[in-house]
Amino acid sequence: MLKRPFLFGLGVGVMAGAALLQLLLIGEHAPQRMEPAAGPAAKTPLYTQAELDLRLAEERSRVLEELKRQNAGQQAAADAKTEAQAETAKDAAGALQSQDADQARSNRAGAADPSKRGTGLSRTPQQTASKRVIVRIPPNASLDEAAGLLAAKHVVSDKKAFIDRMQDGSGKIRAGYFAFEGSPGIAEVVKIVTGKPLPPDEAQAEMNRAEAGK
């Protein structure tokens, strides 16, 4: 795309060329005034004044047309950019509305069933009394078995929701001892069981202390 300095230089060049043509025309007429006419052999000027004016007008028209094309191209690019930005904003607004609708449905479901409110965790007296729960997942345990162990310890209240989250590609459950603090959400539970387990000796000692304190 041509820049304004280039177009300005082009216009100046056209004007300079016209001036040179004027000088040539003046130079051709000067010897004719100083010397007598040589009859039929006298030299004819390259351009008449009318032809020169016509060429200047044509050059001006050409430059103006070039400027119009450049302005039209710039306007089209600006319109395309504005349209793309509007589409992006529209898509973002649609995604936000979808998230709000999903959240509203989740809130309504939680209001209808308090045991599944929020992230699918139970709100049982056992979990409220015990702020830290340790669950052992044995080696080669299936996803359903691991979900059953977590549900038995009241870490999750909805086995299916936990299984669905794991099947979404959240990772692979590891064997070992895992500690859960307070009321973790499903996302936090998935993060814990797919992460590094507790050292067996430390976990077993903590479980023994919890049993002794009952």
Molecular structure report:
By secondary structure, this protein is mostly helical. The protein has two domains: 4-111; 125-212, Endolytic murein transglycosylase (Dna Ligase, domain 1, 2-Layer Sandwich), CATH 3.30.1490. The chain is built from seven helices and two strands. The protein has helices spanning 4-34, 49-112, 125-129, 143-152, 159-170, 186-193, 200-212; strands spanning 132-137, 176-181. It has a two-stranded antiparallel ribbon with strand order 1-2. Helix 4 (143-152) crosses helix 5 (159-170). The longest helix is centred in the middle third of the chain and has 64 residues, at 49-112. The radius of gyration is 43 Å and the shape is rod-shaped. The model is unreliable at 113-129 (pLDDT under 50).
How far from one another are the termini? Answer: 81 Å
Please give the domain count.
2
Uncertain spans: 113-129
Specify the biggest β-sheet.
2 strands, antiparallel
Q: In percent terms, what proportion of residues is strand?
A: 5-15%
Per DSSP E runs of 2 or more residues, the count of β-strands stands at 2
| Mean residue pLDDT | 77
Percentage of residues assigned to helices: 55-70%
Radius of gyration: 43 Å
Given the helix and strand composition, which structural class is it? mainly alpha
Would you kindly provide a brief summary of this structure?
The chain has 214 residues and is mainly alpha-helical. It is 67% helix and 6% strand.
